[in-house]
Amino acid sequence: MCDCDYNRSLDIATPRNVYLSGYYKRSFGYYSIKHREPVILTHLIDNLVRSKEEIANKLGPNAAEELKEIIGDISKLKYEIQTNKPLEKIPGTDLEAMAYNQCIDKCAVDCGNVTHFSCIWLLAECYMYKRIKEAFITRPSFKDYDYFLSQKKEGFDMCKPLRIQLTKHLNALTGDNDSDTKGSLLRDFTNLLKINLWGNKCDLSLSLGVVESQQAELDISIFEDNILADDCEKIFDVVYTETGTQIDIVLDNAGYELFTDLCVADYLISKKLIDIVKFHVKSYPWFISDVTKKDFDWMIKELMSSSDNLLKDLGNKWLVYKHKQVWKVEEHDFWTYPQEFVHMKTMAPDLYQMLSESRLVIFKGDLNYRKLMGEKNWDPVTPFEEALQGFNPAKLCALRTVKADLISGLKEGVAEQLAEKDSKWMETGNYGLIQFSEKIVPLENETKV
Ligand SMILES: O=P(O)(O)OC[C@H]1O[C@](O)(CO)[C@@H](O)[C@@H]1O
Ligand SMILES: [Mn+2]
Q1: Average pLDDT over residues 98-105
Q2: Closest by alpha carbon to 278, among 262, 292, 294, 289?
Q3: CB–CB of 403/432 below 8 Å?
Q4: Looking at this predicted complex, what is its ipTM?
Q5: d(CA 366, ligand 2 centre) in Å
Q6: Residue from 271, 197, 190 nearest 227 by CA
Q7: Is the minimum distance from the CB of 163 to ligand 1 under 6 angstroms?
Q8: With bands split at pLDDT 50, 70 and 90, how would you rate the model's confidence at 366?
Q9: What b/e readout covers 353-384, taking b as 16+ CB neighbours within 10 angstroms?
Q10: N or C, which end of the chain is more exposed by having fewer CB within 10 Å?
Q11: Region 189-210: what's the mean pLDDT?
Q12: Looking at residues 94-106, what average pLDDT do you find?
């Protein structure tokens, strides 16, 4: 962005190769900040008011007073967003506060004061969830409180029929290894990856926190044409032929999506294609439905106590994977920073190193895709590798349903055709991408540009 006048958004679509921002009135970022974020905050306040008795009983004598302060903070945040105020600095000297303040300062240097509608959309959206967390974590009774838990649990319960169907499917694939061929493994792994991709459609931040009936389908053949890039074969080659004991899955949403993530991980372990799977979770409630460590453990326990024996057996099997450290759950604050992934190597070198040890890093969902792509409005035919802008810890892939107006790696003319059909095609989650990037080893004498 450049010499923007912050009190006036431009009534244009986002120009090519610039950061997404609410500054462009025809962008999804503008619509999100203007219409979606206030609704998300209003729903959060309504939920808190509705459960204030239960909260007071559960969280102790100071909770009622602290809850009033929290609701005040969230109402103030909503007002700041609606009146396009400058982003207030995050108090404290911890690394995450510094990451947010560094991002705000960078935006200020680039273009003057930094308001919700003028800064990079990624900062504005992450900042809202960071401020929500600050409202709770600064009140002693609420420091471990998950203010999105009820929606995540409701979403999980609603998808029980689909989970039973998928469990039967997984058991059929993993029940017998003797008749496996490379062809059958490719076919079944590809099928599971596509079921996993469409699991990303279920997303509470898109539905503004309202739990909708499960749109995901097991019969994914009906969505085949909506997969706009399909690198399943390249991904399979990595898990089938390469060495390296672990893969990493950078998780996105809890509920059905997480269930499909664990099914993919179970398949890889059961078929002895991989020895260890590392799951990367958020360290606090994020974008309404994103997975925390507690959500991961809660789901396995929930399965183990299911009335359905198939789910119960699966929960017991998955608990053993965790106890044996075949499955490891990793937290890192970087995943809730506002920065794009191209900054990971300098801002979180320990995390970058961990990912570098992976045979394959799978990034799930739309927000991770935006961070991979540097939150830039690329020409849609820009190669996926190019849009990574050098972020390259290991071989990686992105499984993403398209819920924000940025994309790369499409064939010539595809974006234009889809826009003809529906100008909002990038905001619905109806289209998906399965994109792969090789680990590009920089040439010895290659100078960094
Ligand atoms: O859970 P996901 O797939 O990362 O989706 C989160 C995305 O949904 C939205 O909140 C709505 O499009 C985006 O702003 C954000 O990138
Ligand atoms: Mn999410």
Answers
A1: 97
A2: 262
A3: no
A4: 0.96
A5: 7
A6: 197
A7: no
A8: very high
A9: ebbeebbbbbbbbbbbbbbbbbbbbbebebeb
A10: C
A11: 82
A12: 97
